[in-house]
TrEMBL record:
Family designation: Belongs to the TrpF family.
Pathway as given in its UniProt record: Amino-acid biosynthesis; L-tryptophan biosynthesis; L-tryptophan from chorismate: step 3/5
Catalysed reactions, as listed in the record: N-(5-phospho-beta-D-ribosyl)anthranilate = 1-(2-carboxyphenylamino)-1-deoxy-D-ribulose 5-phosphate
Protein name: N-(5'-phosphoribosyl)anthranilate isomerase
Keyword check for Hydrolase: no
Organism: Marinomonas arctica
Domain N-(5'phosphoribosyl) anthranilate isomerase (PRAI) span(s) in chain numbering: 5-200
Length: 205
């Protein structure tokens, strides 16, 4: 089965349409003000309005106020939510939208138990743990701590690049892979050759 691909940290329409052209299944938009890839709700919704069909826009929040989340969601019915903070399952369910819950995992974690805390999630995203950083570290984690069978589809993130995505998929067999910094020229600006190589590696490797 072909692995699905999410290109995260989209900040402009040119990168969004370029990623779609090469076969991205989902695009991530970061609504976390401390991130260099932050984009305003207005800008993000303008970009999403120009996306082709069958591409899922993903709204990434980190322990966000409901007013911010509402300001994004009201702009478009296509949004899938990604909660990347310490949100409980009840907080994730509050907005009555499909959601992905991100977990920052490290050696010694019971990944299966962490995943089971969110039975209502559409999928779980596994990212590298780094103290004080909610995500987007660009760092790998030990994929061997991921159990072979989990109760939810897994989206693998953290330090993925065009050079290691095939190995990651071979080892983990995730439902999808998620990349941001690994396909950039600069923070928030994507490299067309890297995006193309990454997606080809994920889908044809």
């Amino acid at each position: 089965m072909s692995c699905r691909v999410k290109i995260c940290g989209i900040t402009n329409v040119e990168d969004a349409l370029m990623a779609c052209h090469y076969g991205a299944d989902a695009l991530g938009f970061v609504f976390y003000a401390k991130s260099p890839r932050y984009v305003s709700p207005e800008m993000a919704n303008d970009i999403v309005s120009q996306l082709p069909p069958f591409v899922t826009p993903v709204a990434l929040f980190v322990d966000a106020d409901s007013s911010l989340i509402d300001s994004v969601l009201k702009g478009c019915s296509r949004w899938l939510i990604q909660f990347h903070g310490n949100e409980s399952e009840s907080e994730c369910l509050f907005y009555q939208r499909p959601y992905v819950k991100a977990l920052r995992v490290k050696q010694g974690d019971d990944v299966a138990a962490l995943v089971d805390r969110y039975p209502s999630a559409s999928a779980m995203l596994l990212d590298a743990y780094k103290e004080g950083v909610p995500g987007g570290t660009g760092e790998l984690f030990d994929w061997s701590i991921i159990p072979a069978r989990l109760s939810k589809p897994i989206i693998l993130a953290g330090g993925l690049t065009p050079s290691n995505v095939k190995q990651a998929i071979h080892q983990v067999s995730p439902y999808a892979v998620d990349v941001s910094g690994g396909v950039e020229l600069a923070k928030g600006i994507k490299s067309e050759p890297k995006v193309q190589e990454f997606i080809n590696g994920a889908k044809c490797g």
